[in-house]
Write a structure and sequence with these properties.
Elements lengths: L1 H31 L5 H15 L7 H4 L7 E6 L4 E5 L7 E6 L3 E7 L3 H12 L4 E6 L2 H29 L3 H15 L2
Antiparallel strand pairs: 1-5, 2-3, 3-4
Amino acid sequence: MIDELYTYLKEFFKATRLKEEKAIINKNTTRRRERVHPADIAAQIFKDVSEKDPDLLRQYDPHFLDKSQPFDTYDLPADGEAKPYSDMLVTQAIKFTKGAKKQVALIATITGSQAQLITLLANTGTRSLVRVPHNEADCIRTLEEYREFVDHRDERMKELIQDRTSDEDTQEKILAGLISLMNH
């Protein structure tokens, strides 16, 4: 019985040692392998989308703005989060803020639908000079069409990102990279 015990222990320790050696080799291989950066994944997704589903890369101007109709032009600041704003002095506007309280800009609009459309455009990456329909009905129609497009596009991009990684922090970085690529 002692001989059998010694034989079992010898085989057990040998198997354990082989597992440890295999784990060390796998660990070293993983370390040597290059890490894929979120920007690289974003570029890969952008390339795939541009080849297989280019409709997702449509831009507000020229795909949604009808330039044959009258429009108003607004100059949006380069940074800041956009929110519709109104008070006793300004009936329709967009307030751009950075951080909790720092106001970057306040842009008055002619109509409330223009304020909503500009807010959507700014928060989806469109900055600098932006044209929006002057006519309220045209602006509402454009806002609805563009909002529907953005919702569909963002949902599809999230699916493509989730197919590549399950880490939520990495997903957010990839999405930011994709938005940057789509707006240039």
